[in-house]
Amino acid sequence: EDSFISMSAQAAFWMTLSLPPLLLGMLGSLGFVASWFGPATVEAAQREIVRWATTVFSADVVNEIIRPTVSDILTQGHSTIVSVGFVISLWAGSSALASLVDSITAAYQQHTVRHPVWQRIFALLLYAVALIGSVFVLPLTALGPDLIPDLFPAAVRPTVALLVDIFYYPGLGILLMVGLATLYKMALPNKLPWHRGLPGALLAMAVFLVTSTGLRLYIAWVSGTGYTYGALATPIAYLLFSFFIAMAILLGAEFNSAIEEIWPAHPTRRDRRRGRRQTMARVAARAWTNNDRPDSDGAGSDRANRLAQARESS
After folding, report:
1. Distance separating alpha carbons of residues 189 and 187, to the nearest angstrom
2. Which of 72, 81, 291, 298 is most deeply buried (CB count within 10 A of its CB)?
3. C-alpha–C-alpha distance, residues 205 and 306, integer Å
4. pLDDT tens-digit series, residues 91-125
5. Tens digits of per-residue pLDDT, 33-80?
6. 10 Å Cβ neighbour count for 148?
7. Are 237 and 219 in contact (CB under 8 A)?
8. Nearest alpha-carbon partner for 257 in 203, 205, 177
């Protein structure tokens, strides 16, 4: 019943508009923790963002959209973190996440559980938590390959450096899958166990790898034929990449929802406690109603009169 194509297009639109606010919040916040990791933290984070974008997007998107945006934000300094513009960027940057949260809750048939206003505030809070987490994860991701070998004795540093090079990108993939599974859990009003989001997260990663590779090949083929969209080519390419990212995430949510319908998750301890409280509340309300409700034939009044007479005689 869910049109994940239209939902993916909506999320892609907001992801495109949210790119500058997202980078502003992420790189601006790095200024507060840069001294913890070293003076070159911000520059290393910039290189890591561009390198990651190169593996995902086409060269035109990286060189004409992402790299200039990152450079412009870094030249402004991190003083904008305390400005009104940064507060506005929080709201704008959370729009993409709000669209994904709406689509995920719709995939699980829970879109009517949470109030729309609270849904938007919840997406803003979730975005703020993700932004704070990225401030610490991004420097570790950028500087990790150089810092980890230095923590070991000199005799084993070459071996450790080799292992870091081998497992670096698989580790990032696992971290991304964990983040997606966490998003699937946190977005729902009636939350499921965390491991129930892993199948959809794995499917989302596989779908995006296939679609992004196909899109990169298509863009390369179109560029080779000489057919182009002119000045709109790069924004359209970025919008298509954003569409496939959103589509992969929503397909993962639909897959998890289908699994939940076929093999429902066992109630968690929290759900069982809530169910017991609700059952006890219903039983207490029913007993209270049966004991205190007056009868239509006046039996309630007679009982009250007998109690009054017994009280007077005593």
Report:
1. 7
2. 81
3. 75
4. 777 888 888 898 899 888 888 888 888 888 888 88
5. 666 666 666 677 777 777 777 766 767 777 777 777 777 666 555 554
6. 16
7. yes
8. 203
Look-up: residue for tokens 């959209």?
65
Q: List CB contacts of 280: < 8 A, sequence separation 6 or more.
A: none
Nearest-10 Cα torsion for 185, 191, 194, 197: -50
- Each as own residue / partner, the long-range contacts of residues 66-72 (CB below 8 Å, 24 or more positions apart, any chain) are 66/19, 69/19, 69/20, 69/23, 70/23, 70/27, 70/46, 71/46
Angle CA 134–140–143, to nearest 5: 130
* Per-residue CA distances from 62 to 18, 47, 139 (Å): 16, 12, 20
**Which tokens hold the place of 246?**
């959103």
Nearest Cα to 106, choosing from 12, 11, 13, 202?
11
- Listed in sequence order, the residues at least 6 apart from 270 whose beta carbon sits closer than 8 Å to its beta carbon are none
Angle between helices 157-186 and 198-225 (to 10 degrees): 110
Give the global pTM: 0.71
Which tokens in the block code for residue 44? 């290393």
- Which residue ranges make up each domain of the chain? 4-265
What are the pLDDT digits (tens) for 38-49? Answer: 666 667 777 777
